[in-house]
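Tutorial handout. Part one gives the primary structure; part two gives the three-dimensional structure as C-alpha coordinates.
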Amino acid sequence: KSQSLNEVFSQLSTQGNTVLSMRNKANRLEELFVGLLEQGRES
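Part two.
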Protein backbone atom coordinates (compact mmCIF):
# COMPACT_ATOMS: atom_id res chain seq x y z
CA LYS A 1 0.00 0.00 0.00
CA SER A 2 1.69 3.14 -1.16
CA GLN A 3 -1.17 5.53 -0.31
CA SER A 4 -3.74 5.69 2.45
CA LEU A 5 -7.38 6.32 1.61
CA ASN A 6 -7.07 9.71 3.30
CA GLU A 7 -4.39 10.69 0.79
CA VAL A 8 -6.54 9.49 -2.11
CA PHE A 9 -9.55 11.51 -0.91
CA SER A 10 -7.34 14.53 -0.36
CA GLN A 11 -6.04 14.32 -3.93
CA LEU A 12 -9.57 13.90 -5.29
CA SER A 13 -10.68 17.00 -3.37
CA THR A 14 -7.73 18.98 -4.67
CA GLN A 15 -8.81 18.09 -8.21
CA GLY A 16 -12.36 19.26 -7.51
CA ASN A 17 -13.90 15.81 -7.09
CA THR A 18 -16.28 14.91 -4.28
CA VAL A 19 -16.94 11.38 -3.04
CA LEU A 20 -20.58 11.21 -1.94
CA SER A 21 -20.71 7.53 -1.00
CA MET A 22 -18.85 4.27 -1.31
CA ARG A 23 -20.40 0.86 -1.60
CA ASN A 24 -18.95 -2.49 -2.40
CA LYS A 25 -20.31 -4.56 -5.27
CA ALA A 26 -21.79 -7.16 -2.90
CA ASN A 27 -24.18 -4.56 -1.51
CA ARG A 28 -25.28 -3.57 -5.01
CA LEU A 29 -25.84 -7.18 -5.98
CA GLU A 30 -27.77 -7.81 -2.78
CA GLU A 31 -29.94 -4.75 -3.42
CA LEU A 32 -30.58 -5.88 -7.01
CA PHE A 33 -31.55 -9.37 -5.82
CA VAL A 34 -33.92 -8.04 -3.14
CA GLY A 35 -35.42 -5.62 -5.68
CA LEU A 36 -36.05 -8.45 -8.13
CA LEU A 37 -37.69 -10.53 -5.39
CA GLU A 38 -39.97 -7.62 -4.46
CA GLN A 39 -40.93 -7.09 -8.11
CA GLY A 40 -41.78 -10.79 -8.37
CA ARG A 41 -44.12 -10.52 -5.38
CA GLU A 42 -45.91 -7.53 -6.90
CA SER A 43 -46.67 -9.38 -10.16
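Part three, for discussion. The mean pLDDT is 86. The chain is about 65% helix and 0% strand.
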